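User: I'll paste a sequence; please echo it back and then give the predicted structure.

Assistant: Echoing your sequence first, then the prediction.
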Amino acid sequence: MGVPRDDDPTKRPRRKRRSRDEAPKERVLHTRVPVVLEDELKRLAKNLRVPVSNVVRAILEDAVDAVDAVGGLAEGELLGFADRLARQRDQLRVRISRRSEEERDDEAALEREDDDDDDELGDEEERDDGGDAPPLDEPACPEDLPATLEGVFGYQPFVLAAASRCAVCERPLPAGSDACRALFDDPTRRVVLASTCRLMPEKG
């Protein structure tokens, strides 16, 4: 808020200078002046045909009036500057407040978008996990070597021409899938395993 003031400080009532007749008593002032200034004052008084004291008093009175006028103008300009500064400060505060609110709204919107993306990604991961996971009722490979593989000395990979089942875990093997045949000393033994069976030894 600016300091209340008049619209035009230059229109203030000027200080009334007391005339010689109104003054209850005149006083005498003594001062020292340079010789050059004394000569100029005497020359001016001679041209005006008035005493030197009258010239000095007139100059002093005009100087005082000029100082008052300049002081009034300076005070008005300072007050005007204070008012403008206060208005600009208030406008700047309003703009900063609005910008802060907009930034908070943008951040909130970005956070909501990130949350939505995370939710969608989580749903996709759950769907992917669900699609890759084997059915709960699908049999698993046993921990130890079953009796059907006793005496095996090797495995031969091949492609099934017809659908079959893994002899270890009974996992269905469709036609065209990769499988392995267990090899025994007895060539009449026929044992087929899934190529992904964990009982298969790793290749060296």
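The longest strand covers residues 154-159. Residues 9-128 form one domain.
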